[in-house]
Structure formats: C-alpha cells, structure tokens
Amino acid sequence: MRCFPTVRCAKTAKGPDRLNRPFGGGGDVEGPWPESCTGAVSLTFDDGLDSQLNVAVKILEKHGLHATFYLNPWGDHWRERLAPWAAVARRGHELGNHSTMHPCSKAYDDVTPDRALERLDLPAIAADIDLAEKRLAELSATSERSFAYPCFQDYVGIGAGRKSYVPVVAQRFLAARTQGQQANHPSRCDFHHLWSWPSERLNAATLVGYCELAADAGSWCIFTFHGVHEGHLPVADVDLDQLCAHLHRHRNRLWVAPVIEVARRIRQWRSHTTGEDSC
Ligand SMILES: [Zn+2]
User: 6-11: long-range contacts (C-beta < 8 A, 24 or more apart)?
Assistant: First the structure.
C-alpha cells in the first residue's frame, strides 16, 4: 500500500483514474496513515485566487496530488466566479468552507466594519458559514468538507465579551484549520483547531523540511498557501513544484491527501483504537 494519493493506494493509478478517486477513509484503520507511511501532508490554499486555478492546480496534478482549496462564495456573482472550481472538485480536490464574508479582526487595515470579528456575534458567524456551505454544496457533491478560519482567527466580540466560535465550527464540520507551531499528532490534535504552517515566501527546502519533521514525529503537516506569485502572501511556482516533486517521490513514506480525508481516517483510527467517537 502506498500513501498517495488516497488511502487506497496499493498501486499507483495512472491517468485520470488517479485523480478521480473519491475521498478515502474507509477500510484499513490499523494506523493513522496507510501502512507504509510514517506521516501525512495536506496542502491547503485559501481564498480561491486565480493563480491557484491557473498554476497551483496544474502543478499538483502534474505530480498526482490532491489538495484542499478554501473558498469564499461571496456576492451576487459567486456562482459565475467560482464555476471553474466545480471541475477541480470533480478531479478529487476538496473545496473547503472559508465563510462568505471572510471576517477578520478590525485591527487589519482592509477589514470593513461589517466584516470585523469584534462587531459580529455567534449567530451571525453561524449564518455566514451556513450560507457558504449551501453555496459550496452546489459546486461540490461531497457531503463533507473542512473549514478554515479566515485570518486564522476564531473569535467574535471584544474584550470581556469575546467568545470563541470554534464550537460553531465543531457542530458543523469534521475538521477545521488554523495556524500553529508544529505538525498535528494524530493522538492529540484538536480536529477543530488543526495547526498549519503559513507558507508564504517559504522556499522548497524549508517546505520539504517541515514534511520530513512530520514524518519523523509520526504527525500530520498542513501547509497554508495563498497565491502563486500573486497577492501579498505568495509562494513561488518553483518552490511549490519542488515540494510536490518531493512528495511524489516519497509517496511510500508520506501520505498526501486533502484535510477532510486525513481527518476522517484519523477519526476512524481513534475510534478503532480507543473507542473515542468524536474528535
Ligand atoms: Zn482567507
């Protein structure tokens, strides 16, 4: 069994079939990863930027990798704007929920008052997440997806009135991604507060190093990317390509899969080994 590109990887599929498998997670739960693997890697991309469609998806698929793309279906023309992503989902990538309005702290220069977390409450966050989910369901037939906290921030309100909206997310999703200080250990990670590495401006050697640290620790490394030579949080195409080439070359050791797929398998493994029913 190989740890790439899905759980069922006894042999490396060729051609379109390789990229058309449904998200795995069933069957073997003897370990948190497929049998020959010592760790997992998820490549995630936020905000649905053009360079993800035009560059990142091509690099990923050249190496036979599936990723998670966290989209924001905002505005009256979300359907037209996000239409190309439906085909990406059909080829086996995950379309994750990133809210519609992308709320962040008002401390950021570009956050308008209507999107400021400090001014929102839990029902407003829940309604926005639910609206995004309804719209994403039109793009991707999958019944489960993961969530990514916009700006890695997971609260509403301010000062003594600040509240976490992690419970709102936990009621709706199997897994959710924020940022953190290390890879996620399968026995200990909080599925609704998964840690990721913000990956802007990192070179290939650094990205590969994070993967290998995770493999050594028996952990799950999640990267957060934004644009490829686009926007204020870019990664270079050459660095992304070299990372993907490394992951392909070492597919017997490193399981690469979308966030929802890895989370589903770890959940099954935990349930199998400890009887733990939730994350
Ligand atoms: Zn974002």
Answer: 6/66, 6/92, 6/257, 6/261, 7/34, 7/255, 7/257, 7/261, 7/265, 9/34, 9/251
Distance in Å, CA 274 to ligand 1 centroid: 35
CA dihedral (97, 172, 178, 114) positive or negative? positive
Q: 182 C-alpha vs ligand 1 centroid, how far in Å?
A: 20
Please state, in angstroms and rounded to a whole number, the distance separating the CA atoms of residues 98 and 92.
19
Quote the ligand 1 centre to 82 CA distance (angstroms). Answer: 15
Q: What is the rounded distance in angstroms from the CA atom of residue 131 to the CA atom of residue 123? A: 12
Nearest to 263 by CA among 4, 11, 2, 23: 23
C-alpha distances (whole Å) from 121 to each of 12, 100, 105, 135 are 47, 15, 13, 22
Q: What is the pLDDT of residue 18?
A: 31
Instruction: Compute the distance from residue 102 Cα to the ligand 1 centre, in Å.
Output: 6
Query: What is the Å distance from ligand 1's center to 223 Cα?
Result: 13
Residues of the chain with pLDDT under 70: 1-28, 276-279
Which class for 45: exposed (0-12), middle (13-18), buried (19 or more C-beta within 10 A)?
A: buried
Task: Tell me the CA–centroid distance for residue 9 and ligand 1, in Å.
Answer: 32
